Amino acid sequence: MNLDGLDGFTIEVPSWAYGNSGTRFKVFTRPGGPRNPYEKLSDAAQVNRLTGLANRVSLHIPWDLVDDWSDLKAHADKLGVRIGAINSNVFQDDDYRLGSLCNPDPAIRRKAIDHHLQCLDVMRQTGSTDLKIWLPDGLNYAGQDSLRGRQERLAEALREIYDASDDNHRILLEYKFFEPYFYSTDIPDWGTSLLHCLALGERATVVLDTGHHAPGTNIEFIVMQLLRQGRLGAFDFNSRYYADDDLIVGSADPFQLFRIMSEIVAADAHRPESRVNFMLDQCHNIEEKIPGQILSVLNVEQALAKALQVDQAALATAQREGDVLGAHQVLMDAYETDVRSALADRREARGLPRDPVKAFGASGYAQTAAAERAGGTQAGWGA
Ligand code: LRH
Ligand code: MN
After folding, report:
1. Which residues have beta carbons under 5 A from ligand 2 (an ion)?
2. Is this model's pTM higher than 0.70 or not?
3. Looking at ligand 1, which residue's alpha carbon is closest to its atom 4?
4. Which of 6, 119, 203, 340 is the most exposed place for a label (fewest CB within 10 A)?
5. pLDDT in tens, 283-323
């Protein structure tokens, strides 16, 4: 089985997946949860130690604010991980009730722009190159504000942020079809994000969060189209049954994940030089967080390994000849290929455990963390 295509493939994990999270009904806490960005990085580094796949950790501002960025960077270096994308946060402040960059009030827009300029400074100190922007901005009632006016304000604000960024920086602009507002969202779909990115410049790219589409959306088509434009900057991988459930990627719809990775392989975008940032964006509300993250990166790797089994020549021939079922079968043969033992062999050959989830359980890391982290306030959404 050819797994060479996995060489150099890495996945970025989110700091917030290790802290407490939940729904509007309940945020469950567990003993041993991280209390600060240092402990979040330590937990995230366990995923890389056991899979060799997750050498970057995304941070979220202000959730991960620290006094000394070079000290946090040194901590990350010691753990063998790098600080990845910096995520802005304009979704937890009363001032942003009517929007952030799209707000009708110029003073509020100023505040939101300044927050993004602060994130650019954090990037300069952490060595990060990706600024990830997800805006909650939207409306709940028709007529509440000018849909066009909000787009003009958004374009103007993004322009200032883009122009303030450095040549080695990228803007990753994320879209989401609804929530936290329900009548309209100012960046609801890939088209709107792409239009703003094209207006900004080469360093502006689209983030595709797999949980941010209307049910039934053919996500791999969007992947193909953004790759055609050279504007697929990153994925926020997770899975869902209904809305933005942020569940373990591949757990709800492994075939969809395979179809997405098949479009990635067809465009050779799994190679590091594509600069597509494969990230997770998940919350482990009830399951253990580190094992949940380990399983998540293994699910993405498995989907890629299956996609690498697609007989591209046979597929092209069947497609050219209009052999409908023949072409479909070529893809299904790859999907039905059991790559798990080959991946375990590959890990073993690299000095990694065949079963990283089991190895984590046997490491005693969770028990040690629970003992060491008795006092203090656990980190979590909003904490
Ligand atoms: C918004 C989102 C965004 C992050 C947040 C944690 O739903 O997907 O990517 O800022 O989750
Ligand atoms: Mn996301």
Report:
1. 209, 236, 281
2. yes
3. 134
4. 340
5. 999 999 999 999 999 999 999 999 999 999 999 999 999 99
